[in-house]
Specification:
Rossmann fold; globular; seven-stranded antiparallel sheet; Jelly Rolls; 578 residues; alpha+beta; 25 strands; single chain; six-stranded mixed sheet
């Protein structure tokens, strides 16, 4: 089927603002379902807008595809872009507009990755009558805890990269267009982006010069986020969390084990299954979790090749991401009898074994929480530590933080995401390493992972970071999942203050994984107090890290004895019988 492309098709919002979309549709006269993607990244940037659904293929398959610039970006009206603030109302109005197009049949779907996935959820919570299904990929849920804070620490690397580069460059042009300030302002911004690691070291973070506090038209959300730390009325207004009771349509959720929004996607799935307004949404929403990092659906992630079955081009040698989405929308918008509604609710990629597997729900009921204990001499095992074991100690100096090595990151390419060999940090004086004996049989860990860490610090506030890793026979230490907790940052999801020198147990949420540790491999746990520039540096003074200009070293102790048994809790899946 031939395809026609219409550029900058206008849609008028309830307040009179005009948002513009490029529409890909069949050249053949007729009426078709409309699929909407709403983006801040430029609707003409097909490498981004076509990540999960090729608009040309979709149009040739009998859909109209509307790729719309959100308010304040590119061809759409709006002097200032403010992330997520207008997307509830604008999404609702855009669906009504899409359903009324002269070539539309009145049925609309919405989809997209990251920000575009979030706009899909935001639209769904407003329950527009024409919306029939959504397909959000790697989308935030609770803005504070998914986008900005993790365990009380600021996701500084993400905030810098996204605000200054992904949004800031175009925002600066919009803010300074036609003025003599444009050239020097762009030069300063580009220097800040290119000098990412130096920019990240600025203290205090709240006064970052590149954020241009004197210019209210340039990334105002960045300054507001830092002015409103943690969960509060401000962050709630930008969140989907708590609104799933208004969702009436089924969601196809695509997530990644090494994606910075993995926890959000799992929360979306649980919430829509539990709270959605209709049985169709509750029973027929689906989640697919690959081994991917954010916005990257390749089989090679970090230092690991998971095989062609993992690629978004092949998906277990069955279909690509576009075909998957077309099957989904064919069923819900075209009434195709393709049995989508009979497919398993959960499809996950089991890393290590490197195979896909279907499950009925998440988390797996057959997974058994199993403790693995830190031990003296850098040991790690199933046995409870003996009484009287001496703690391990190190000094955390915020001026020399442990550098980021992989994980669920979205930063410049010099900081690759996913499983990355940790060799560069293992010998650091501020890193503790605990390693098991070689495994004699497969050990499958599928589900939420957590750590209970008994510690003390000479500082009134500090950070504790834990990584679960796989030490393979080649000697590579590959990170599987991790978590961080900041002492003294309760409002942002951290722990309460502890008197310096007092031993306390800190629960570290390490999110989730599906990973098989193979025979001959070893489990390895890394404990440290920084992961920079992924997270901001705790100054160890008790002052907010957002305002601190002075840092001090802290003496850190990790306990692993019978009374204070630091351990990981792993969801171990028993071997299948027969």
């Amino acid at each position: 089927m031939d395809v026609v492309v219409e550029r900058n098709v206008p849609a008028t919002m309830r307040d009179g603002a005009v948002l513009r979309a490029d529409v890909f549709r069949p050249a053949e006269a007729g009426r078709y379902p409309v699929l909407v993607q709403r983006t801040p990244y430029n609707k003409e940037m097909l490498p981004l807008t076509a990540l999960t659904l090729d608009p040309i293929r979709a149009a040739a398959s009998g859909y109209a595809i509307a790729l719309q610039d959100v308010r304040g970006r590119w061809a759409s009206d709006g002097e200032v872009f403010y992330l997520y603030r207008h997307e509830f109302d604008d999404g609702h109005d855009t669906v009504a507009w899409a359903a009324s197009l002269p070539y539309a049949d009145g049925r609309v779907g919405q989809y997209g990755v990251s920000y575009m996935g979030q706009t899909s959820w935001q639209t769904a919570t407003t329950a527009p009558p024409a919306l029939g299904a959504i397909a959000p990929t790697t989308a935030p849920n609770d803005f504070a805890l998914n986008h900005v804070w993790r365990g009380g620490a600021l996701a500084w690397g993400l905030e810098l990269y996204w605000s200054l580069q992904a949004i800031g460059l175009a925002a600066m042009i919009r803010a300074k267009r036609g003025t003599a300030q444009l050239a020097p302002a762009m030069t300063e911004l580009v220097d800040a982006v290119d000098g990412y690691e130096l920019t990240a070291r600025h203290l205090p973070p709240r006064t970052l010069p590149a954020a241009r506090e004197d210019d209210p038209r340039f990334i105002p959300f960045f300054r507001d986020v830092l002015a409103n730390p943690g969960r509060n009325e401000f962050t709630a207004g930008l969140s989907v969390s708590g609104r799933h009771r208004s969702v009436r349509v089924p969601a196809l959720i695509v997530a990644g084990w090494h994606d910075l929004l993995l926890a959000a996607d799992l929360d979306h799935f649980a919430a829509v299954r539990r709270d959605a307004a209709t049985e169709v949404a509750r029973e027929h929403s689906r989640i697919i979790i690959g081994p991917w990092s954010h916005g990257m659906f390749n089989n090679i992630v970090g230092d690991v090749d998971f095989g062609l079955r993992a690629s978004g081009l092949y998906l277990d040698l069955r279909e690509d991401l576009t075909a998957l989405h077309l099957r989904w929308f064919d069923h819900w918008l075209k009434d195709a009898a393709n049995r989508v509604e009979e497919e398993p609710r959960v499809r996950l990629f089991v890393q290590g074994r490197n195979r896909w597997r279907d499950e009925d729900d998440w988390p797996l009921r057959r997974a058994v929480p199993t403790a693995w204990y830190l031990a003296a001499g850098g040991g790690l095992g199933r046995g409870v530590p003996a009484a009287g074991e001496a703690p391990d100690a190190y000094v955390y100096d915020p001026q020399e933080p442990c550098p980021t090595r992989g994980g669920t990151v979205l930063m410049p390419h010099t900081f690759p995401a996913g499983p990355v060999d940790q060799a560069a940090i293992l010998a650091r004086r501020d890193v503790l390493v605990y390693t098991s004996a070689p495994l004699t049989a497969e050990l499958e860990v599928t589900g939420p992972v957590a750590a209970a860490l008994f510690t003390s610090s000479s500082a009134p506030s500090t950070d504790w970071l834990v990584k679960l890793c796989d030490l393979d026979p080649r000697g590579r230490t590959l990170n599987v999942c991790d978590g961080i907790v900041r002492v003294g940052a309760e409002a942002a999801g951290g722990d309460p203050l502890v008197e310096p020198g007092t031993v306390a147990c800190h629960a570290v949420d390490m999110w989730a994984t599906s990973y098989v540790f193979l025979p001959g491999h070893r489990l390895r746990v890394i404990v440290t107090s920084s992961d920079f520039p992924r997270y901001d540096r705790n100054p160890n003074t008790g002052e907010s890290a957002l305002d601190a200009t002075v840092t001090v070293p802290a003496v850190q102790r990790v306990f692993h004895d019978a009374e204070r048994p630091s351990h990981l809790l792993l969801p171990v899946v028993p071997p299948a019988l027969g």
